[in-house]
Specification:
GO terms for molecular function: branched-chain-amino-acid transaminase activity. The protein is of the alpha+beta class. Helices cover 26% and strands 28% of the residues. The radius of gyration is 19 Å and the shape is globular. The mean pLDDT is 96. The structure holds 4'-deoxy-4'-aminopyridoxal-5'-phosphate. Residues 34, 160, 186, 189-191, 210, 212-215, 249-251 line the site of 4'-deoxy-4'-aminopyridoxal-5'-phosphate.
């Protein structure tokens, strides 16, 4: 039987349901996370990647949204490890925590209401292709004066969904947002990096991005892979078309090379050398094959 954590208890996933009256369902009020677990066959262990960082981001999101769930990062990590054990997980998985609200009133109030927390398991199976074709979306990225993009809010995903759905409708694999100023922000659910004359460049927080944990991991390993620090600076929209390499990063897609944007081929249309090196290193780290980065991993089994 598969279990979910739901409001303080481990219960069968089929019983983890919310009412149609729930205002997270009605209005999209809440915060979420997305975490990966990687099964290491040799070690016979499940490694949860940067678990504490994901839960710290969840608590930060909750703080901005006025949601006060009564858990510390440590408790959230312990609950998640317990959930993995209860489900005897021995494969790659995706973990979805959601902080939601149980608001009786019709008013969209987040302040001092009743909150709930659930954590459940999703299957991975997200990336269909080794490289993707992307388009610049006609939808602009949400910004800090509307829906804060640095917060992983449920409602913020409407912006992602509009852009991603537009891309799918136009036969593309991914959508890239620009800001109101015309700078590259991020993809629908991934951060963006470009490579230019050997420099690895990624947009700053002020260009309306989610501060991705994969983005941060890549920034930490880039120096080791190509000997340079990642440059954090705005990327004007036109610059991305003539980048030597473009790749996306995210918990689900890991490191995903981009082969074309708006029908302009990037590099030779395949994964570039720096992207491939970073991807290789990232995949070793998350699976626990590079013990230098062990501190990123939470081992589920003793
Ligand atoms: N941007 C958005 C909008 C996202 O939804 C995600 C996925 N969480 C990311 C970037 C990548 O973040 P992370 O590397 O932490 O998964």
């Amino acid at each position: 039987m598969e279990y979910a954590y739901f409001d303080g208890r481990f219960i069968p996933i089929t019983d983890a349901v919310i009412s149609v009256k729930n205002k997270t369902f009605n209005y999209g009020l809440g915060a979420l996370e997305g975490i990966r677990g990687y099964w290491n066959q040799e070690d016979q262990n499940l490694y949860l990647f940067r678990l504490e960082d994901h839960f710290q981001r969840l608590l930060n999101s909750c703080k901005v949204l006025f949601i006060t769930i009564p858990y510390t990062v440590k408790e959230l990590c312990e609950i998640t490890v317990e959930l993995m054990k209860k489900n005897n997980v021995k494969r790659d998985i995706y973990i979805r925590p959601i902080a939601f609200i149980n608001l009786p009133s019709l008013r969209p109030n987040l302040y001092k209401t009743e909150y709930g927390l659930t954590i459940f398991i999703e299957e991975v199976g997200y990336v269909e292709k080794p490289t993707v074709n992307a388009m610049i979306s006609s939808w602009l990225r949400i910004d800090n004066s509307t829906i804060p993009p640095t917060v992983k809010s449920i409602a913020g995903y409407l912006n992602s969904a509009l852009a991603y759905s537009q891309a799918v409708a136009q036969g593309q694999d991914e959508a890239i947002f620009v800001t109101r100023e015309g700078n590259i922000s991020e993809a629908s659910t991934n951060n963006i990096f470009i490579v230019k004359q050997g420099d690895i460049i990624t947009p700053p927080l002020s260009d309306s991005i989610l501060e991705g944990i994969t983005r941060n991991t890549i920034m930490q390993i880039a120096k080791q892979v190509n000997g340079h620090n990642v440059k954090v600076r705005s990327i004007p929209k036109s610059e991305i078309y003539f980048a030597e390499e473009v790749f996306m990063t995210g918990t689900a897609v890991e490191v995903l090379p981009v082969s074309a944007i708006d029908k302009r081929q990037i590099g030779n249309g395949n994964s570039g050398p720096i992207t491939s090196m970073l991807q290789k290193k990232y995949l070793q780290i998350v699976r626990g094959e590079d013990k230098k980065y062990e501190s990123f991993l939470t081992a589920v089994y003793p």
